[in-house]
Amino acid sequence: MPITDDVQLPTYEELDVQEINISHPVMKASAMHFGKYCDKVSKEFMLCRIEERDPRKCVPEGKAVTSCGLDFYRQVKQNCRNELEKLSKCMEWTDYDLKFW
């Protein structure tokens, strides 16, 4: 679909959210728990993407997923940071694909 002048794109202010600043190994090590924690909002986002077929209409749902992720990683940092860091380092150093073994 080509972009023409009549297509309204979201502004930078609408798209601006705090980023989740973590490394790939940490994200991979926590993916299963993150998926369970943010299951509902993630499914709402994907449902919106499928139904609307226009990502511009799903910006609020995408922001909700990011917000849930920020909340998840704040809780991880408070409660089990050392364990997650050990797991992610183990995955990083034992397998180039970061697979669970």
Automatic annotation (TrEMBL):
Query: What is the protein named?
Result: NADH dehydrogenase [ubiquinone] 1 alpha subcomplex subunit 8
- What biological-process terms (Gene Ontology) are attached? mitochondrial electron transport, NADH to ubiquinone
Keywords tagged on the record: Disulfide bond, Electron transport, Mitochondrion, Repeat, Respiratory chain, Transport
- Entry's InterPro entries? NDUFA8 (IPR016680)
An example of a Gene Ontology cellular component annotation for this protein is: mitochondrion
- The protein's predominant localisation is mitochondrion
Cellular compartment(s)? Mitochondrion
As recorded in UniProt, coiled-coil segments are none
Give the family, as the similarity comment puts it. Answer: Belongs to the complex I NDUFA8 subunit family.
What this chain does, per the record? Accessory subunit of the mitochondrial membrane respiratory chain NADH dehydrogenase (Complex I), that is believed not to be involved in catalysis. Complex I functions in the transfer of electrons from NADH to the respiratory chain. The immediate electron acceptor for the enzyme is believed to be ubiquinone.
> Record's PANTHER family?
NADH DEHYDROGENASE [UBIQUINONE] 1 ALPHA SUBCOMPLEX SUBUNIT 8 (PTHR13344:SF0), NADH-UBIQUINONE OXIDOREDUCTASE (PTHR13344)
- State the source organism's domain of life: Eukaryota
